[in-house]
Known about the structure:
The protein is mostly helical. It has helices spanning 20-56, 72-102, 107-118, 123-129, 136-157, 159-166, and strands at 2-5, 8-11. Strand 1 and strand 2 (8-11) form a beta hairpin. The radius of gyration is 21 Å and the shape is globular. Residues 1-11 have low confidence and may be disordered.
Amino acid sequence: MAMAWGGLWEQTELFAKASKEEIQSAEFYLDKYKMMCLFMEDFENHQKEMEQVAVDGEVARRIDQTDLHADKTANAVILQDKQKWVYSQYEIFTALIRRAHSQVIDPEEKEAIEIRFIKGYTRKETILFMRKGVAASTVDRRIEAGIVSIANSLKLTGFYDYIKQQF
């Protein structure tokens, strides 16, 4: 579909459809969602302690095992900067995932995604939390459909292009 925008013609889709790779990427980041949230919470609550551990601890002695000489203070600063960068990336990823989750239209798919990925339960626990009488295969289908819905929403936000730029 060609669109005119500000005098420029560009090829774009009105309703984005994620590729197989993008759907797999969405599932990967959904699977990491709870861990990212835990890291962010820990970073927010214990940033000063993490900085002190970086200075005092052995982790800053050598960032790269090939270093013959290590500047512990400089390495601690590098580690702190890396932790801040990771935190900022997780903030972006989790916000976009929450936004995509809020756009899942089907309530059963949304609930399955909420339990499985947002709350971080296992597949088995998700099946148990869903309404009684719902077959495991039905829960699996809802999760799969929810992942596709989220992948499509993430595609519209430019999530996959952002990831390609960063990594």
